[in-house]
Design a protein that fits this description.
3-stranded mixed β-sheet; 3 strands; alpha+beta
Length: about 170
């Protein structure tokens, strides 16, 4: 699966940055993130992948009903191990799935959206990059950790940068 390399790339970037943060920085509320923590954003990334893993087994993905595991947001080593686990199982054959979503204007209304595993992997990858951009803001707010220029930047933007440099 082509996206496995991209997932590995962002997980390596994220793991390296988490390794440089202190435990206190990982759980420190960030003013720039409306008092969210780096750990909360990392938990959110991981939980969406774990939700997709469960959905692969059941055929139904519902990101809104994901299990929230606060160990992920408070222990960066748990987060790092889970990212390694995700990378190890993410390469699977494509299958048809149903994504369930709720109508935000009506809690009783649910919609079933046909999708597939590869489409959801692509979504999770882009979602991870988006949250890494927020994590970058948080790290810059609370830490001296230096991040790569590509941390939290969409691949299309990196590609554009390279084209402009030529």
């Amino acid at each position: 699966m082509l996206l496995k390399n991209s997932i590995q790339n962002v997980f390596v970037q994220l793991t390296e940055s988490l390794s440089e943060l202190t435990d206190a920085e990982y759980t420190q509320p960030c003013k720039a993130l409306f008092n969210a923590t780096i750990g909360q954003h990392v938990r959110h990334i991981i939980e969406l992948f774990l939700c997709l893993q469960k959905g692969y087994e059941t055929g139904v993905v519902n990101y809104e009903k994901r299990k929230r595991d606060y160990k992920i947001e408070t222990d960066k080593n748990v987060a790092i191990h889970l990212m390694q686990d995700i990378y190890n199982w993410v390469e699977r054959p494509n299958i048809e799935l149903v994504m369930q979503a709720e109508d935000y204007g009506d809690d009783s209304a649910r919609i079933d959206i046909p999708t597939n595993y590869y489409r959801e992997i692509a979504y999770n990858l882009e979602h991870t990059i988006h949250h890494m951009a927020l994590i970058r803001v948080g790290i810059n707010d609370i830490s001296k950790v230096v991040l790569s220029q590509e941390f939290g930047v969409a691949y299309s933007t990196i590609k554009y940068w390279k084209e402009c440099a030529q």
